[in-house]
Design brief:
Layout lengths: L12 H9 L7 E2 L4 E2 L1 H10 L1 E2 L4 E4 L2 E2 L4 E2 L3 E2 L4 E2 L3 E2 L4 E2 L3 E2 L4 E2 L3 E2 L4 E2 L3 E2 L4 E2 L3 E2 L4 E2 L3 E2 L4 E2 L3 E2 L4 E2 L4 E12 L4 E2 L3 E11 L4 E2 L3 E6 L2 E3 L4 E2 L3 E5 L26 E4 L8 E4 L18 E3 L5 E2 L16 E2 L1 H10 L21 H17 L3 H16 L6 H14 L5 H23 L8 E5 L8 E5 L10 H4 L2 H15 L10 H29 L2
Parallel strand pairs: 1-5, 2-6, 4-8, 5-9, 6-10, 7-11, 8-12, 9-13, 10-14, 11-15, 12-16, 13-17, 14-18, 15-19, 16-20, 17-21, 18-22, 20-23, 21-23, 22-24, 23-25, 24-26, 25-27, 25-28, 26-29, 27-30, 28-31, 30-32, 32-33
Antiparallel strand pairs: 3-4, 34-35, 36-37
Helix pairs in contact: 4-5, 5-6, 7-9, 7-10, 9-10
Length: 528
């Protein structure tokens, strides 16, 4: 304490009274290491009482390493300077409801043995609760943070509800530990939960936030869900002000689940377009519910290759891979560049991610979106140079013909082209000039003997003359019947030339396959 060799608790009574009588509202105070009784704290705050507001008004405050026995009553207090409560021990309840911190608020390493009440508090600067221990409830309902709200390494031993609160910057829960089932309600720009440990079940209701779950430890089911409506203050029921977040979309975006065991993770109505899944395990057991969205292929298809990218859901890892492997900048157009800390993955690793998340979507009966992830898996396998050339050629043919059995339009176009080509071959070379007519011949060697008759069909006569002369309505109709029967794997019974016979055999093999690919692609989009 400035000007004295002893702390406030150990001053002589006359010196203590003189000090307290000399305080005025807004005075800076330094009581580091002071053991406060409930009575001593009340006397101090009474001396700083502001008659215009009816509440304590403190300038800069240093309470580091202090100890508060009984109830620490700072309800409605205003701190116009930095408020430092580092390593403080609150043996009883700590009540800061409605308090206003216009500078930084530092509670790093503080121990709250009772309830910590910050309901309705306003933190204009950064608030630091790093390493704090909350043994009782941590009441932050209605609290508003203009700057960062740092809870890195904090322990919430029996907290059942955290929030609802509004933060204009980052809420940092890195390394925090939640010991009991908890509901977290926050509207913030960012929520970082790297290495956060959830010892029991948890539900995170969020708004506006970009969420980082890297290396989080989920021992029980954890749900991350977007809150559609603003949070309300429990006491008044009125919605919390979200002025600090105005101009932003209220949706929630997940940026990473790397290092997470996703078997206990459920996502509801989350934007996953930027999410990095590499490094997570048990992604096949991830629950994706509600209206979760993924990244998509580039929508700007360009002028040179307007057919290049069909729209589908993708993973951020494919975007990063395509940018890194693009030989020309034009090939990377529309794909999202990887962040500086994103690992460089091989196509086989990206294919494994697609396969696991596809399984998750299939288990959730989301077959249409699962089909997109099967497409992405096949794409990565096709580009994997560590696979055999034969497998890659087979995948390339599968992609070109039908988009891995998922592009009905592509397969239908190939079917139409095959039918058109078959009709053209039949009209020009496959149909004979005339249908051969059977002829019967025979003779009787002598009167009364048996007559021997032989029926034979002449070989079809190949058409001759200019090709345009062969194109007639009659020949087109016959060719069309041949092709239609080939599509359904039936013989038309039409007499054909040698060329026509081989053309029909080819079409009876190829065209039913193409028709099957069309049906397969349609089914993959409408299957439930």
């Amino acid at each position: 304490m400035t000007g004295h060799t002893a702390c406030l608790a150990h001053l002589a009574a006359t010196d203590r009274d003189a000090y307290l009588n000399g305080l005025t509202p807004g005075t800076d105070i330094d009581h580091r290491g002071t053991p406060f009784t409930e009575d001593l704290l009340n006397r101090l705050l009474t001396a700083l009482h502001d008659p215009t507001t009816g509440e304590p008004h403190i300038g800069a405050a240093w309470f580091d390493w202090a100890t508060f026995t009984g109830t620490a009553w700072f309800v409605g207090a205003t701190f116009t300077g930095d408020a430092k409560f580092g390593r403080v021990t609150f043996a009883g309840d700590a009540k800061f409801a409605g308090a206003a911190f216009t500078g930084d608020a530092g509670f790093a390493g503080a121990t709250f043995a009772g309830d910590a009440g910050f309901a309705g508090a306003i933190f204009t600067g950064d608030a630091k609760f790093a390493g704090a221990i909350f043994t009782g409830d941590a009441r932050f309902a209605g609290a508003i943070f203009t700057g960062d709200a740092g809870f890195a390494g904090a322990r919430f031993e029996t907290v059942s509800r955290l929030g609802p609160l509004v933060c204009g910057a980052r809420v940092v829960l890195d390394g925090a530990v939640f010991g009991q089932p908890v509901t977290v309600e926050m509207a913030a720009r960012e929520v970082s939960c790297a290495r956060t440990r959830w010892i029991s079940t948890a539900t995170l209701h969020l708004r506006y936030a970009e969420v980082d779950l890297r290396d989080a430890i989920l021992e029980y089911p954890v749900v991350v869900a977007a809150r559609p409506d603003p949070f309300s203050f429990h006491r008044s029921g009125s919605p919390l002000s979200e002025a600090e977040l105005s101009g932003r979309e209220p949706g929630v975006r997940l940026t990473s689940v790397g290092g997470v065991d996703a078997a206990h993770l459920a996502l509801h109505t989350i934007d996953l377009s930027m999410c990095r899944f590499a490094g997570a395990v048990h992604l096949d057991q991830l629950r994706v519910d509600g209206w979760c969205t993924f990244a998509t292929t580039p929508t700007d298809r360009g002028r040179r290759f307007p057919w290049r990218w069909s729209r589908r859901n993708t993973l951020a890892e494919e975007h990063h891979w395509r940018v890194r492997t693009a030989r020309r900048p034009a090939r990377a157009h529309g794909w999202t560049a990887p962040p500086s800390d994103a690992p460089e993955l091989r196509p086989a690793a990206v294919a494994a991610l697609y396969r696991q998340i596809r399984k998750s979507l299939e288990d959730g009966k989301n077959e249409p979106d699962a089909a997109d992830f099967y497409y992405g898996e096949c794409e990565m396998r096709r580009h994997d140079t560590f696979r055999s050339r034969g497998e890659r050629m087979l995948l390339t043919a599968y992609w070109a013909l039908s988009g891995y059995g998922l592009r009905a339009t592509r397969a239908l176009a190939w079917l139409g082209a095959a039918m058109t080509a078959t009709i053209a071959v039949m009209v020009l070379w496959g149909l004979p000039v005339d249908d051969p007519k059977p002829t019967t011949t025979g003779r009787q060697a002598a009167v009364g003997q048996q007559v021997t008759l032989t029926t034979d069909t002449p070989d079809p006569v190949n058409p001759t003359g200019p090709l345009p002369d062969r194109v007639t309505g009659e020949r087109f109709e016959k060719a069309l019947r041949v092709v239609i029967n080939s599509v359904v794997f039936r013989s038309s019974g039409q007499d054909l030339t040698t060329t026509g016979t081989y053309a029909e055999m080819t079409s009876r093999l190829a065209e039913p396959v193409l028709l099957g690919l069309v049906v397969l692609a349609v089914r993959s989009r409408v299957k439930r």
